Amino acid sequence: MENYFIGIILLFFGAIFSLFFKKRKIEFITICSITASIFTIQNAIKVFIEGTKEISFNLGTIFQTVRFEMDYLGAFFVLFISVMSTLAVIYSKGYLKPYLEKGKDLSAHCVFLPLLSASMLLVATCFNGLFFLILWEMMSLSSFFLVIFEHEKKEVLKAGLKYLVFMHISVIFIILLFALLINNSSSLDFAQFREILADNPVLSNVVFMLGFIGFGIKAGFVPFHNWLSEAHPCAPSHVSGIMSGVMIKTGIYGILRIISLMTVFNPQIGYFVLIISVISALYGVIYAIGQHDLKKLLAYHSIENIGIIGLGLGLGLLGLAYNQNFVALLGFSGAILHILNHSIFKELLFLGAGSVYIKTHTRDIEILGGLIKKMPYTSILFLTGAVAICGLPPFNGFISEFLIYFSMLKGLSVDNIFMFLTMLLGLSGLALVGTLAILCFTKAFSIVFLGEARSENAKNVQCDNGISMILPMGILGCLCLLIGVFPAIIFNFILKITSIFVNVEQTFEIIPILQIISTTALCIIGAVMVLSIIKFKFEKRVENFETWGCGYNKVSEKMQYSASSYAQPFTSMIKPLFKKISDIKKPKTIFPKEAHFEQHIEDVEEVYFIKPVLNSIENFLTKFEKLQNGNIQQYIMYGLIFLIIAIIGVVTVG
Amino acid sequence: MDKISLILNIIILLISPFFVIGIIKKTKAFFAGRKGVSIFQPLYDFIKLLKKGSVISNSTSFIYRIAPVVVFITTVTAGLFAPLCANCSIIGTCGAFVIFCYILGLSKFFALISAMDCASSFEGMGASREACFTTIVEPAFFIILASIIALSSNSTFQNLNSIVEYAGNFGVLIIVLAVISIFIMLLTECSRVPVDDPTTHLELTMIHEVMILDNSGVDLALLTYSAGIKMVILASLIINLILPSSLDFTASCVAYFILLGLIGVIIGTIESAIARFRMSHVFEFVFLMSSFALVIASLTAVKIYGV
């Protein structure tokens, strides 16, 4: 554990000492992050070889013994938090360069970036309830300061504040959860919590529900997802990458940790988690289709993927409740693998979106286009991420989705009608999510990168980004492909983590299938390469010409299919689920002059739930506005009234 | 699986698409009172296209150049997982239908982005419709397959008709409904009348044909060939649902070929008898598959749990 703490201390060191650097702040924290991650990764790998490690500190009467334990689950999180946040920090150098040239002060950013990694790493290993809350809060606050990087923009500040409010609602539930556990066990240690949960189904259920809501707000399950779609687009891209790829997973970590403490499982909880997850997955992807802001689209896809992870968790819980070991094993492995996969491809996509933003200064995909010719590396890597997030072979997303599918197919044989219907819901839901993701990412990729440039922003791009931005994306892209092509190796690794929840001895059935998938993936890649080479070599004369305009020969780039029109058949099919806001100015008269069309999709929850609630609270509170009128005499009177009441109170009670 | 059926399956996968399309064309010619082209014509067309050079749009990138290859390879690979002749697939593993669907998904992904690469409004229109129809078809297909698996506890995507043994009359009913819905899926995915008219002259109303409007030469050959392969795969699914597993190898092979020809004739007859639907009605038609899938699911629930 020493190496782990050396890494953490290095991160804190980087955060504090970056303040003393005038120019090379980012380089300094990059070096600190890389060295720190070497130490933490080394420690995590040691845990996988040698088993659980722990260390405790005695911090007086309030905290009692603070114990940091790195079991397989913690080590897994430490491993991918280190890798992902380091890659994002490397990327930040290129991304922040234009801001630096404009003379923006990066001090706060450079303090909170390592601080966020450090707090996430500590959260994943802390086994002390009270200390966990402090670290959790540190994580939320440092990410808040990272989100409001461009705080001079009004909408960024608004999104940041919304994020802060949501995180504190989440903390209320987590505090309640720990208060309940600490009160019942009169100890702060997680090991003690396990003992009191051991044969107490009622307490287990209450604890799980509190944890699911509290940690679920962080993870972004519907209906607690609202902060996600606003905070992610506003943050700088590498921060969105860390937040979406890593930080929301700490919410899932919390849920997994609670499951690891529980021993009695109620099927109702499993059904609840599974149904909420299917709803989240569908909700996320349906809204993503309607979005034309590239980063907002990706943010909604995070909700979708959290839903898929939750689907795996729900299956795991149902498997445990019905004593179906294989279902639980596949469910948990699928969920854990999807945590890793999602963090890889989502960070890749966010970094790709950032590269596009830095070059074109816009996130609106409707005015982009044709970037593949100018930014070939970014485009290919974005395409890799897009295929991976759709869960298509030969990339990593398919492996985790396949495990979850297989778990559901096994779950069909559980002799229970609710189970059967839920499995059907899950299967068709996941299939629907998969096809909708294809619809969404063919839209995003082809509108941004393919075809012709739709505006000056896209036309003026000259070249691809520098190596510091391409390299992290390249590493992530390779990881996507490697996991997709060699799933059996990664599955054996994931099994170690799954062993915390279930007995992992019966895996005989799944390994051969994974090997078939691996061979198929290799065959597809090989055959495509061979056939392409043959095709390019033996193809007869190839001519270039304009696109066929069906007889019309004044084709312009404005006539290309746009993102709204690509999504239109689907969005009009499910009209009732959206609130569409259109701004249309139709061309009129025989010689039409001006025309305009714009369409946005608003979140139903935002429109029909959050806004009315906030409005009524505001209406109620404005009635008290008169209290604060700037009149000092009146303020003194308030003090006097308060004092009198207090004295009366003391006298009567005393 | 033994060597003979392996070779037979590979031949079916690679050769029969030409003849199925040939049969469809012949049937349409018969109803139109023409003599029609020989059923070898699609094969000749394919060879002719391979020999030709191609014209490529200035707007396109390398995606457009490799997409036909990816589409072709993935369609063939998907075919390896699907049950073809004699009720067995070349790679028969548990959960094969998930792999099958996702590999076809990859093929669709590349077909869509290749269409969007031309910067043409027509191709985008086709791509958008195709993507939208898939979102209706796929979940329904998963429900049907899941119901069949729940009844027979066999997730290998082979011997689909064995549910008759497990479920008796219910099984027959489910098979009839499944055949109808997979036939709708075939019409949708392979863009046949009444969903799409492959021979229409108006680009605005096309779906699949408009997506490959700019492709020529080898690219066009590969794309039309893959569309044919996909049709044979889906037709084989229907045949496997119908053919009883009690038939011996030779009989089931003969029956398979007869039924494959028959499906070609049926598609040809439908195309001669009715026109394609208006786009808004197409959605209703495709949703029919979802309703059938739900009926199949409820029948399965009734059968297993006797509610």
Explain what this protein looks like in three dimensions.
Chain A contains 24 helices and 5 strands. By secondary structure, chain A is mainly alpha-helical. Chain A has a domain at 624-654. Chain B has 307 residues and is mainly alpha-helical. Chain B has one domain. Chain B contains 10 helices and 1 strand, in the order ααβαααααααα. The model of chain B has no long low-confidence stretch (mean pLDDT 90). Chains A and B meet through helix 16, helix 17, helix 21, strand 3 and helix 22 of A and strand 1, helix 3, helix 4, helix 5 and helix 10 of B.
Present the secondary structure layout.
The complex is a heterodimer of chains A (654) and B (307).
Chain A: H1 2-17, H2 25-50, E1 53-58, H3 60-63, E2 65-70, H4 72-101, H5 107-123, H6 129-147, H7 154-185, H8 190-197, H9 201-219, H10 228-234, H11 237-261, H12 267-290, H13 294-321, H14 325-360, H15 376-389, H16 396-411, H17 417-449, H18 456-459, H19 467-485, H20 487-498, H21 510-538, E3 542-545, H22 563-573, E4 579-585, E5 596-602, H23 604-622, H24 632-653
Antiparallel strand pairs in A: 1-2, 4-5
Helix pairs in contact in A: 1-2, 1-5, 2-4, 2-5, 4-5, 4-11, 4-14, 4-19, 5-6, 6-7, 6-11, 7-8, 7-9, 7-10, 9-11, 10-11, 10-13, 11-13, 11-14, 12-13, 12-17, 13-14, 13-16, 13-17, 14-15, 14-16, 14-19, 14-20, 15-17, 15-19, 16-17, 16-19
Chain B: H1 3-32, H2 41-51, E1 54-57, H3 62-81, H4 96-116, H5 121-152, H6 163-189, H7 208-211, H8 217-242, H9 249-273, H10 279-305
Helix pairs in contact in B: 1-8, 1-9, 2-8, 3-4, 3-8, 4-5, 5-6, 5-10, 6-8, 6-10, 8-9
Briefly summarize what is shown.
The complex is a heterodimer of chains A (654) and B (307). By secondary structure, chain A is mainly α. Chain A is built from 24 helices and 5 strands.
